[in-house]
């Protein structure tokens, strides 16, 4: 139940229905949209929401649904019910096309059985009666006309007509040529007058041809004559035409009689087409507003995550602006939210968004909010929005508000959602504030849920001291003097009356006089609220920065866990391989030593021969070992340490403090890009220690790190996101941005295209929140201009 009657319209629900109606293909579907009303049965709402969600998935991810012809069947079926009535050729043709669409839809879902369970309910137990189609196709051809062979009698009649017309045409051609040869005809060819084929004859020669004059020219110089012998043939054709019409009526009557037993099934087919058109329109509208299916709850509660006003969203799409998402929670503990803040700060939009999305969900429509949102079912929705003064009912603005407050107080309960804009206004604030507070106390005592907007300080104090009522405010940037349109619960907000008045240029003397007229206590309260707004803004910015750092930390943690898993998985394999290589080296070394000793013995310890054999032994040993150089003196060691060590791609370094070893996969000025498994990091040259080249351990991991080095070598600080959806584009940019930062690139080139500028705005808003991005600029106008963004990195 919605009170008052115009509440849904004021919340924008009528505009939503109009937009959905425009998506319908049939008049029956539009009529169904017009009947949309909020429902209170949980099972029915759940079914409606799932149908819209499944159809949206179908439109997004599956082949197109065959809905080419959606002609209304029900009016024709009602006509068939009448005994003796018959449908015209066009009526049967429309039924035929509609039935083919019905059967194609049923086959479509049968081929995907189980994929769209909620949509399959629409045609559950609905049979495909092909006999209807076959019966119509035997009579009606592909152009919607009765077939020439629909009956033997019709075939004979059509044959007779063709033969008579041929004879008539042949005979009139003969007469026409004879008249031309004699010079009796006027300029021109054969023509039709009163549906008869005639010869144009000069008036002075009209008696030279026997026949009937059907017409004369405007000057009277030409007479149009139908020759006598042709006249009888044309009469014969006309009589056959009458017989043809009677035979077609007989055939259509018989076909109508054949359809009469199937009237209930035809109506079921009509209902299926109507519902498919209706659900399809809801799904198309959901795509326009980026709608999702929220979680439905049996409790009277509202939990919206990143919700946006659908009408505002559609309006902003055209101008390239973005809608600030709304996050709000209303439940048993936090029943009523009192929203305060500056004028034009978004209080009313916030309240209307909550009310409209609740109406949409209870009408089975998807909403522009995260799927994690959770909404309950309310039996009653009360709204007091705008001015409802009435001359006829002798109601002033405040009287109209009071009449609604009386109704709200009398009829509200725990399953009621109450929405009140500018609570208590319309009369002296000294009296309007206390009355509004008393009404709010009654609503809270009855456990009603709701949102109210106000500027009254007594309502803010009441919300702070009353269980079940919570203060909330719209954030305001008091430095730039502009609203942020972000709702935060917990504290009230200032109206910023003096600050806004000063910004728009109100005379300073007037502002000073106004400040002197308000009490000192009120001044302190308002100053406190302004300071509180500033603190809330700083806390919000800090939370955003922390969330970004937490995401980066989570990515690094995942990379580290992946590296650890790889090491654990390959540890045994690497050790076994190293042991096998060591055993092979020892075997070869023993064989080499034995051969050397045998050679020395064979040469009887000849000095020259012995020296040569030892040199060969050392050469072979050098292939398997790295000989350490002579230890430098302490003085030389200090000089070497003081020099800068040359480190190249492919070298290995040790990270002091952790003892970890990493491979150098990139060098940029004084920065090194290091790889530890899948984990990558950037270190200064002075923060690492070079280590000797590895053979066994490095060789064992060469294959694993080769892909990392290759990726680093092939990485380009450029990403093309043209044609992508916003979420996919931001995800791709985030990956390239992380790689660019890790590898020390000074900038990242982002190609997003121009279009309407929406994607560009989303990307730039995202980059502003990224701490490593110092500035952004467009490409040169000759090389892409606003279609390309350069993000410069710290």
Instruction: Give the low-pLDDT segments.
Output: 389-394, 626-644, 695-709
Number of extended strands: 24
Per CATH, the superfamily of the domain at 295-506 is P-loop containing nucleotide triphosphate hydrolases
Helix content: 40-55%
Mean pLDDT: 82
The number of helical elements comes to 24
| CATH classification class of the domain at 295-506 | Alpha Beta
The strand order across the widest sheet is 1-11-12-13-9-14-15
Index terms:
794 residues; alpha/beta; MutS, DNA mismatch repair protein, Chain A, domain 3; Rossmann fold; SH3 type barrels; five-stranded antiparallel β-sheet; 24 helices; 24 strands; extended; DNA-binding
Describe the structure.
52% of the residues lie in helices and 15% in strands. It is an alpha/beta fold. Among the domains are: 39-149 and 255-284, Orthogonal Bundle (MutS, DNA mismatch repair protein, Chain A, domain 3), CATH 1.10.1420; 295-506, P-loop containing nucleotide triphosphate hydrolases (Rossmann fold, 3-Layer(aba) Sandwich); 645-714, SH3 type barrels; 716-793, Ribosomal Protein S8, Chain: A, domain 1 (2-Layer Sandwich), CATH 3.30.1370.110. The chain is extended, with a radius of gyration of 44 Å. It has 24 helices and 24 strands. The strands form five sheets. A seven-stranded mixed beta sheet has the order 1-11-12-13-9-14-15, sandwiched between helices. Strand 18 and strand 19 (679-684) form a beta hairpin.
